[in-house]
Write a structure and sequence with these properties.
18 helices; 42% helix; Rossmann fold; 596 residues
Length: 596
């Protein structure tokens, strides 16, 4: 065991962030902490990193373990070189004879040039530098706070590979569902001050959490119904009071205390995309449009038609020109060559990743309604406080300047401003940064229901797969490739093209070989093994289902450490056995088909 939190409590003002929480993290685990903005996820990581101090309880880290933290904030680096920043991650107690070599090795692995000044780097490359600073100490526990923010998809996939090869324990916060699905061996949810643990990846967590919420809602409804009945009983007339049962009175008083102590789940963000009247059939058409900065072609000879109802994702590495393409289409930027035609009757809702549309000096309310008490939504006037309550803004926040809001709150305010206006063209530039997963999934749902035209710049692969039907792929040399399908479709096609190129290259370099001999039929023992595999797989899956049920029990992680560790080991081994059985069945089935 590397990390243990026992009865840890932490409050922000009168609001408890952590309420007597328990957490165990063992060697080799990759644990993702999820929860809504403001629930205390970053505060939890700070306690483990010894940056914060708990109000109560114990945070224990194995005495010999080294802890490294990749913080969420990028504005922590002075004007230093990459080498200097990475070297700062080496603790004083490490041997110094190989420090320079250690730093150079880590920088080489991360693709970092050691002499570059960090202040000149983009957000994505700064995050690589901070990761290098965290990894250079060879930590036993690595803490990552929203590591995919400011990274493009290629960098996120690169980070996944680095983290899959990390030998220590990983405790991380992320809203990137594809990232969590790829990395997490366990999901820990922080909800209303309590931690709950869910084995598996994000999809596993969602399935089990939804079932738990249904059970919790039913139990609360039954409790409230019983409490209401008891309240009626206690308030009956003289006849009832004469026969009053003191034990029943004490039980009622305990139910009242329990109800007061119950912290109901925080309200979910609720909003709708207000749609304007239908636009013209053609939204945008470009003819050999070129945008050039200095001697570099950002957009080169772009000829594309975007029609009403198209749902296009715009993808490519950071700095390749995705935001430039948006500005070109919206007329904010003129091409040096070619032209851009804009269709009629466009009502544009534009989400800017820099949040430039927010007036940080103005209040939360004024950013939405420009000083008016009401906001026209879908033909009805709604009071601004009620409208903003749908975006989880409290009444006391209405007069707060926007600059006082957190990153997630600013994003919610920008969404409130965006959706207060009718639109038939939705343009969103990196809308998922800083949003918690609940808000992100509702945004995803609402965009999927939008009948107008969508242009979306995003590095969130799951988000792209769920809301777009086509891609504009910027490839770095100024060219833009049109592709039908989502991100996963593009990745499969791209990988197949790369595989074909490698195969062609290999054939051209290798001497010609004789055709492969015809595969032999299955032997007697192999045929018997093949016939028995379906039953074997069924048995394994039944055993795994029983283990899953045991791990999903609320009291599971309260059992002894040895029992928890052994059960999780068995579950992992069972999963491996099932995958191996399926692979063996596929191999034998393929040989049987070929032979026949």
């Amino acid at each position: 065991m590397l990390l243990r939190l026992s009865g840890v409590s932490l409050a922000f003002g009168s609001r408890p962030l952590l309420d007597q929480v328990e957490l165990l993290v063992g060697e080799g685990e990759r644990v993702c902490v999820v929860g809504r903005n403001g629930e205390g996820k970053s505060s939890l990581l700070k306690l483990v990193a010894s940056i914060g101090v708990a109000d109560d309880g114990d945070v224990w880290v194995k005495p010999t373990a080294r802890v490294a933290w990749l913080e969420q904030d990028l504005d922590v680096i002075d004007d230093l070189s990459v080498f200097e920043v990475v070297r700062a991650g080496i603790p004083p107690d490490l041997d110094s004879w190989d420090i320079n070599h250690r730093v150079e090795t880590v920088c080489s692995k991360l693709g970092l040039a050691i002499d570059v000044r960090v202040a000149t780097l983009s957000g994505g490359w700064r995050r690589r530098v901070l990761l290098g600073r965290a990894l250079v100490s060879d930590p036993d526990i690595l803490l990552l706070d929203e590591p995919t923010n400011h990274l493009d998809i290629a960098a996120i996939e690169w980070l996944e590979e680095i983290m899959l090869g990390f030998r220590g324990a990983l405790l991380f916060v992320s809203h990137d569902r594809a990232f969590v699905n790829r990395l997490a061996t366990r999901v820990v949810e922080l909800d209303r001050g309590k931690l709950s643990s869910w084995p598996g990846n994000y999809d596993d967590y969602v399935t089990r959490k939804n079932l738990q919420l249904e059970i919790e809602a039913k139990a609360n409804a039954d409790f409230d119904r019983k409490l209401a009945q008891e309240e009626v009983w206690i308030r009956k007339g003289v006849e009832a009071r004469r026969t009053r049962n003191e034990g029943r009175v004490r039980a009622l008083q305990e139910m009242r205390r329990e109800r007061r102590a119950r912290r109901d789940r925080i309200g979910r963000v609720e909003f709708e995309v207000t749609e304007a009247s239908e636009s013209g059939k053609r939204i945008f058409e470009t003819e050999s449009a070129t945008v050039r900065f200095a001697d570099r072609n950002i957009i080169r000879n772009l000829s594309v038609k975007i029609m009403r109802g198209d749902r296009l994702g715009i993808v490519g590495p950071n700095g390749v020109g995705k935001s430039t393409l948006i500005k070109l289409l919206l007329g904010e930027l003129e091409p040096q060559e070619g032209r851009v035609l804009c269709g009629p009757r466009l009502e544009v809702a534009y989400y800017d990743q820099q949040r430039d549309q927010l007036d940080l000096a103005a209040s939360v309310a004024d950013n939405v309604n420009s000083g008016n008490a009401f906001v026209p939504i879908a033909g009805e006037n709604r009071h601004v406080s009620g409208y903003l309550r749908d975006f989880l803004f409290r009444p006391d926040q209405l007069l707060t300047p926007a600059r006082a809001l957190s990153g997630g709150e600013r994003n919610r305010l920008l969404l409130a401003r965006l959706f207060a206006r009718p639109a038939n063209l939705l343009v969103m530039d990196e809308p998922t940064n800083d949003l918690d997963i609940d808000t992100l999934e509702l945004l995803e749902e609402r965009i999927a229901q939008f009948d107008g035209t969508l242009l979306l710049v995003s590095h969130d692969r799951a988000f792209l797969d769920r809301v777009v039907t086509g891609l504009l792929v910027l490839e770095g040399d100024g060219s833009v490739r049109e592709f039908i399908g989502g991100w996963s479709d593009w990745r499969s096609w791209r990988d197949s093209q790369q595989g074909e190129r490698r195969a062609v290259s290999s054939r051209s370099e290798e001497p010609r070989r004789d055709a492969a001999p015809k595969r032999r039929k299955l032997s007697f023992n192999e045929q018997r093994e093949f016939d028995g595999l379906p039953t074997r797989i069924e048995q394994l899956e039944a055993e795994k289902a029983a283990l899953d049920a045991r791990v999903a029990e609320p009291a599971f992680y309260g059992r002894s450490h040895d029992e928890v560790r052994e059960t999780l080991r068995l579950l992992q081994a069972m999963t491996t056995d099932i995958e191996a059985a399926y692979a063996r069945w596929a191999e034998l089935e393929s040989r049987q088909s070929t032979a026949s």
